[in-house]
Amino acid sequence: MTETFNVEFYETAETKSPILDFVKSLDVKLRAKVFRDLGLLEKNGNNLGMPFSRLLDNGIFELRTKSGSNNVRLLYFFMIGKTILVTNGFKKKTQKTPTREITLAKKYREEYLLRKSNVNGGKN
Hints:
- The protein contains three helices and five strands.
- It is an alpha+beta fold.
- It has one domain (6-119): YaeB-like fold, CATH 3.30.2310.20.
- It has a five-stranded mixed β-sheet.
- It is globular.
């Protein structure tokens, strides 16, 4: 039996979750497809490839969900211990993933890892 991954949603230091807010803002059908795809990510982890997932830049991946003409992307990264942290999401309107979204995912990753190392006394 394959061990599943643990999918978590990024939270700010103030325990707000921009990614969860984004997912909740989607219409019911699209939200259901996003959660279906998150389930695939949880089950397959780093073995989930195209058309569902792909590497964007420096360890930041995108989870790709399509419903009709709506394209949603959730950005995430892998952590030690089979954990996946989903950082941010957006509705894709252009061919290329906006640089600002990738930059935001990297910023959230950096903030999260810094907070985690501070809590654990420098041990991840």
